[in-house]
C-alpha cells in the first residue's frame, strides 16, 4: 500500500527526508499525515520519525540548507523548516517511566518500540518517503473499520496522559463509525480513570473540546462522554440532549459546524473558566445563550444581532426547544439584518435633548420594528 498526494511529493518535504536518508538514517512519515492520507482527507501537519538523534537532525538539516528549530529537543523533537513549511522531526522514543504528560523517555532505533508508546492504533502508521506504508500494530484494519482503539492496555495509555480520555472521544467523533459505537474496553478505561482529568490544565481541556465540537457530528461521542461521566467531570451541568437536534438543524440549513454554538447547546457551569475561553469567546457564548432564550421574532434578531450571530441564535433556540426551524426564519433574519433605522438624533432636535431624546429614539425604533421595518422616516416623525 502506498500513499499519494502533493504533500508527500512536495520538494520541500522530500528535502527534509533526503537530509536524513542520505546520512543513513530512517525518515518515516507518521501519525496524522499518514492517517489522513489513507482516509483521503486533507493533510495538515507533517510529522517525521527518525532514528537520528536530535543533535544529528540539527546538524544534517543545517548542512542541507534547511532551518532546524529545537522546539522540543528534550523529547526528541526538532522542527525543520523547509520551503517555509514546518516539519516536526522526532527521534524514535521509548517510555522508561510515565507520570502524566511528562514521561521519561529514551531515544532508540526500534520503530516498533516507538509505535507502542503512541495512543491509538490508527496513529501508529508510518510511511517511507516513497509513500509505502508500514503498519506495525494493525492500525490499517482499525482505520478501515473506523474503529478507535488504544494501543495495548487502555488504562496504561491513559495514565501516560489523561488528556487521552478526551482525545479518544474526539477521534471517535472525527474518524469513528457512529453506528458501530465506541470500543467497550476503551470506554471502561476512560470511566475508570476520571479522577485524572482534574489534573489537566484547563487550556488543554478547552482546546480538546473545541476540536471535538467542530467534528461533523460529535453528538454520539459526546453522549458517550456523558454516559461514562467524562462530560460531567470536565463540564458540570452540561447536557447533551440539545446537541443532536442542533447538528441536524445545521445540516438542514447548510450551516458550518461551530464549537461555540455547540458549546452553547451543551450548557454547563462556569464554562469560560473551566475551558479557559478568551474574553471574546466568553462574550459571544453569553450572547448566543441570551439571544437563543429571547422571544423576539427572527427579523428583530437579525436587526439587533446581525445575520451570523442571529442564525446561530435561531438554530440554538430551535434545538433547545427540540422544535423545527420556521422555514421563513432565515429570510426574515436576513431582512432584519439589512434594515437600517431611518430616524437620526438630529431629526428630533431641538425638541428633544438628553435622556428624553434617547427615550424618544427608542420608542420610534420599537414602533419601526413592530411595523416589520415598513414605516419610513416621515411616517415616524
Can you tell me about this structure?
The structure is a single chain. The chain is an alpha+beta fold. The chain folds into four domains: 1-144, Beta Polymerase, domain 2; 151-234, cca-adding enzyme, domain 2 (Orthogonal Bundle), CATH 1.10.3090; 238-339, no CATH class; 343-380, no CATH class. Helix content is 51%, strand content 10%. The protein is built from 22 helices and nine strands. The chain has helices at 6-9, 11-21, 32-39, 54-63, 111-116, 139-144, 154-160, 163-175, 184-192, 202-213, 219-228, 230-234, 243-252, 259-266, 271-274, 279-293, 298-305, 307-321, 329-337, 345-348, 354-370, 377-380; strands at 28-30, 46-50, 67-72, 77-82, 85-91, 93-97, 104-107, 126-127, 133-134. The protein has a seven-stranded mixed sheet. A two-stranded antiparallel ribbon has the order 6-7. Helix 16 packs across helix 18. The radius of gyration is 27 Å and the shape is elongated. It starts with 5 loop residues before the first helix and ends with a helix. 38% of the residues are buried. This is CCA-adding enzyme.
Strand content: 5-15%
Tell me the count of domains. 4
Instruction: Output the CATH topology of the largest domain.
Output: Beta Polymerase, domain 2
Overall mean confidence score, pLDDT: 93
Distance between the termini: 76 Å
Give the overall shape: elongated
H/I helix tally: 22
Reported CATH architecture of the largest domain: 2-Layer Sandwich
In the sheet with the most strands, the strands line up as: 3-4-5-2-1-8-9
Class by SSE composition: alpha+beta
**CATH class term of the largest domain:** Alpha Beta
Task: Point out poorly predicted stretches.
Answer: none
Helix percent reads 40-55%
Number of strands: 9
Radius of gyration, Cα only, in angstroms? 27 Å
* CATH homology group of the largest domain: Beta Polymerase, domain 2
Reported for the largest beta sheet, the result is: 7 strands, mixed
Amino acid at each position: 500500500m502506498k500513499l499519494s498526494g502533493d504533500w508527500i511529493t512536495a520538494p520541500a518535504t522530500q528535502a527534509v527526508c533526503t537530509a536524513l536518508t542520505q546520512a543513513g538514517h530512517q525518515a518515516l512519515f507518521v501519525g496524522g499525515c499518514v492517517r489522513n492520507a489513507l482516509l483521503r482527507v486533507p493533510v495538515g501537519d507533517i510529522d517525521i520519525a527518525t532514528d537520528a538523534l536530535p543533535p544529528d537532525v540539527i546538524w544534517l538539516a543545517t548542512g542541507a540548507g534547511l532551518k532546524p528549530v529545537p522546539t522540543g529537543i528534550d523529547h526528541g523533537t526538532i522542527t525543520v523548516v523547509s520551503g517555509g513549511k514546518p516539519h516536526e522531526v522526532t527521534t524514535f522514543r521509548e517510555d522508561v517511566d510515565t507520570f502524566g504528560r511528562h514521561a521519561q523517555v529514551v531515544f532508540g532505533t526500534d520503530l516498533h518500540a516507538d509505535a507502542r508508546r503512541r495512543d491509538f492504533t490508527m496513529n501508529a502508521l508510518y510511511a517511507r518517503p516513497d509513500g509505502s506504508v508500514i503498519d506495525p500494530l494493525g492500525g490499517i484494519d482499525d482505520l478501515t473499520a473506523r474503529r478507535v482503539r488504544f494501543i495495548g492496555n487502555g488504562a496504561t495509555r491513559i495514565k501516560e496522559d489523561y488528556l487521552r480520555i478526551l482525545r479518544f472521544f474526539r477521534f471517535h467523533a472525527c474518524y469513528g463509525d457512529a453506528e458501530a459505537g465506541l470500543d467497550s474496553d476503551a470506554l471502561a478505561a476512560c470511566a475508570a480513570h476520571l479522577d485524572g482529568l482534574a489534573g489537566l490544565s484547563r487550556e488543554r481541556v478547552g482546546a480538546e473540546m473545541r476540536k471535538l465540537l467542530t467534528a461533523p457530528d460529535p453528538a454520539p461521542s459526546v453522549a458517550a462522554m456523558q454516559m461514562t461521566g467524562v462530560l460531567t467531570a470536565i463540564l458540570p451541568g452540561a447536557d447533551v440532549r440539545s446537541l443532536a437536534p442542533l447538528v441536524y438543524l445545521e445540516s438542514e440549513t447548510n450551516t458550518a459546524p461551530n464549537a461555540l454554538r455547540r458549546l452553547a447547546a451543551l450548557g454547563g457551569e462556569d464554562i469560560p473558566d473551566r475551558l479557559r475561553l478568551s474574553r471574546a469567546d466568553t462574550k459571544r457564548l453569553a450572547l448566543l445563550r441570551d439571544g437563543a432564550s429571547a422571544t423576539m421574532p427572527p427579523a428583530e434578531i437579525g436587526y439587533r444581532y446581525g445575520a451570523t450571530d442571529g442564525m446561530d441564535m435561531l438554530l440554538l433556540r430551535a434545538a433547545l426547544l427540540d422544535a423545527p426551524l420556521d422555514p421563513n426564519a432565515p429570510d426574515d433574519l436576513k431582512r432584519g439584518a439589512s434594515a437600517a433605522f431611518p430616524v437620526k438624533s438630529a431629526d428630533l432636535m431641538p425638541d428633544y435633548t438628553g435622556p428624553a431624546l434617547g427615550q424618544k429614539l427608542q420608542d420610534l425604533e420599537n414602533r419601526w420594528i413592530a411595523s416589520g421595518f415598513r414605516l419610513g422616516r416621515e411616517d415616524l416623525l
